[in-house]
Amino acid sequence: EVQLQASGGGLVQAGGSLRLSCAASGDTFDDYAIGWFRQAPGKWREAVACFSSNDRSTFYTDSAKGRFTISSDYAKNTVYLQMNNLNSEDTAIYYCAAAPYRGLGCLPNRVNARRDFTSWGQGTLVTVSS
């Protein structure tokens, strides 16, 4: 089973950028859909973005579209989340998680339901100051 480690969080001013990394070990990420999720204080965990190398499918939540980009580096077995034009609403703990591909990739209902994402990395905190 794949193990994931998220990193790259920090404190950034509104309008700034951060790049989060999700490093995979124990397996290659190309057999999985890799999702990014976040949980803000007092709120439910929500899906942010997803990438599946098998079918090249991607998913972005509405608030992430046009600002966030998910990408991958096969040599480093790492998936990235580039976040631009950050605002205070993006403040949260960000997690990456893996779901076995199973021909489903990053279908929106699958990503939003989260239950197929069984391997989770530890969170990385993103704080956006206004």
How would you describe this protein?
The mean pLDDT is 96. The strands form two sheets. Strands 2, 4, 5, 6, 9, 10 and 11 form a seven-stranded mixed beta sheet that branches. This protein has 130 residues and is mainly beta. The termini are far apart. It is globular, with a radius of gyration of 13 Å. It has one helix at 108-113, and strands spanning 3-7, 10-13, 18-25, 32-39, 46-52, 57-60, 68-73, 78-83, 92-100, 119-120, 124-129. The chain contains one helix and eleven strands, in the order E-E-E-E-E-E-E-E-E-H-E-E.
Number of helices: 1
Ends apart, CA distance between termini: 40 Å
Which class of secondary structure composition applies to the elements?
Answer: mainly beta
Unreliable parts? none
Q: Can you write the helix and strand succession as a string?
A: EEEEEEEEEHEE
Characterize the largest beta sheet: strand count, sense, and whether it forms a barrel.
Answer: 7 strands, mixed
Q: What is the multimeric organization of the chains shown?
A: single chain
Number of DSSP E strands: 11
Give the overall shape, derived from the CA principal axes: globular
Give the DSSP E fraction (strand runs of 2 or more residues): over 45%
**Overall pLDDT score:** 96
Helix percent reads under 10%
* Radius of gyration using CA atoms only: 13 Å
Précis, in short:
Helix content is 5%, strand content 50%. By secondary structure, it is mostly beta strands.
